Amino acid sequence: MHLGKVMVVFGTRPEAIKMAPVIKELRKVTDIETVVVVTAQHREMLDQVLQLFGIVPDYDLDLMKEKQDLYSITTGVLTGLKEVMQREKPDLVLVHGDTTTTFAAALAAFYEMIPVGHVEAGLRTRNKYSPYPEEMNRSLTGRLAELHFAPTDVSRENLLAESVASFKIWVTGNTVIDALMETVREGYQFDDSLQGIDFNRRIILVTTHRRENWGNHMRDIYAALLQLVEEFEDVEVVFPVHRNPTVKDLAEEMLGGRERIHLLDPLEYEAFANLMNASYIVMTDSGGLQEEAPSLGKPVLVLRDTTERPEAIQAGTVQLVGTVQNNVYKAARRLLLDRSQYDKMAQAINPYGDGKAAIRIVRVITDFLYVRIGAANIN
Ligand code: UD1
Ligand code: UDP
């Protein structure tokens, strides 16, 4: 029996990583037709993930422009999806997380009166501008969604506090753990792009990209990294730099050509996840890394003032250190010097899931489509 058509829409690297397990599970249900649409808000970084997981999009809006702004992404996604949704007429549109693709796709689905399923729903900082624009992207998507796939009880509570009906929320775990478990393995052999790294030293893995950190905050973070490599000769900083020119130019200006600092192109997910597993500490303003690194038992210093992911902080493996140079430096220094503090933070914990989130999500979607068909027949 044909249950219906699900349109999966995403546009950036993290959405692709976290939607890949869902697409894989959806494709196992032959009664559901799955249509994959990428907005390509990211290009090369998205394509790396599509290739790794063997996802061939049915539609590619190819939107990315050098130094794009929020207006061009929002309007490009809206108008691009209008045509695709009107042609395909899906029964459900599935979006992920908090990017501008997420919000604009949910809005386009609403304009077409198509129900929206929101994967990774309910994370909140309750600060409109931090992370910016993600906090509002995620909240507004939540207002538009019909099905809310909350990764944890904390995110479920956030949704309940906003009067989302409890029967519309499912706690599924985060699909990032599904992707990670499929990808990290002992004895992974790194390719030539990582040849210069001395894995006998302690690796500090760094990523930064948040808009609210552009400029002086990032300068502060990079200055702290310089202090750390100068003080600790057994440390190497490995920094796969985001393609955003604002980030890339500053990273090259401040950290390029420095001894024991490796500025790399974005790594494909398999290499990156295994590099995380081989690291000593992770320092990042990324969302996804706050979920992945704790499950690998890696202490994470979060280079932000707020986080919508409090679970691993409560468990003690993640520390919110902000972006002030001295605070960043001191927090990392303490972990490098104090073994007991390090061991306390290096406990492998998994508040974000058990690797079966996608299976749970697809079960709910299947039931949802069944009920819709039943309701249509009664009417
Ligand atoms: C976007 C999301 C952010 C998410 C992040 C993950 C928005 C507003 N931002 O931020 O929520 O956490 O992705 O990485 O939705 N670029 C390339 N090649 C790529 C990708 C990016 O050249 O493959 C460059 C382009 O010049 C592009 C710029 O990076 O204009 C910024 O990309 P954009 O998607 O607007 O913002 P991000 O900072 O990547
Ligand atoms: N990642 C990757 N290659 C890299 C850096 C990160 O595959 O060089 C992965 C990382 O494991 C995580 C995701 O990209 O799953 C995080 O992406 P990003 O930090 O860009 O976005 P955020 O999670 O902050 O939205």
In short:
The chain has 379 residues and is an alpha/beta fold. The protein has 15 helices and 13 strands. The strands form two sheets. It has a seven-stranded parallel beta sheet, with helices on both faces. Strands 10-9-8-11-12-13 form a six-stranded parallel beta sheet, sandwiched between helices.
SSE arrangement:
Blueprint: E1 4-10, H1 13-28, E2 32-38, H2 44-52, E3 59-60, H3 70-88, E4 92-96, H4 100-111, E5 116-119, H5 134-144, E6 147-150, H6 153-161, E7 169-171, H7 175-183, E8 202-207, H8 216-231, E9 235-240, H9 245-255, E10 261-264, H10 269-277, E11 281-284, H11 288-295, E12 300-302, H12 311-315, E13 318-320, H13 325-337, H14 339-345, H15 357-378
Parallel strand pairs: 1-2, 1-4, 2-3, 4-5, 5-6, 6-7, 8-9, 8-11, 9-10, 11-12, 12-13
The protein binds uridine-diphosphate-N-acetylglucosamine and uridine-5'-diphosphate.
Task: Please explain how this structure is put together.
By secondary structure, the chain is of the alpha/beta class. The protein folds into two domains: 4-174 and 354-378, Rossmann fold (3-Layer(aba) Sandwich), CATH 3.40.50; 192-346, Rossmann fold (3-Layer(aba) Sandwich), CATH 3.40.50. The chain contains 15 helices and 13 strands. It has helices spanning 13-28, 44-52, 70-88, 100-111, 134-144, 153-161, 175-183, 216-231, 245-255, 269-277, 288-295, 311-315, 325-337, 339-345, 357-378; strands spanning 4-10, 32-38, 59-60, 92-96, 116-119, 147-150, 169-171, 202-207, 235-240, 261-264, 281-284, 300-302, 318-320. Strand 2, helix 2 (44-52) and strand 3 (59-60) form a beta-alpha-beta unit. Helix 8 (216-231) packs parallel to helix 9 (245-255). The longest helix has 22 residues, at 357-378. The protein is globular. The two termini are 19 Å apart. The model has no long low-confidence stretch (mean pLDDT 97). Uridine-5'-diphosphate is lined by residues 13-14, 17, 176, 207, 209, 240, 266-267, 269, 272-273, 286-289, 292.
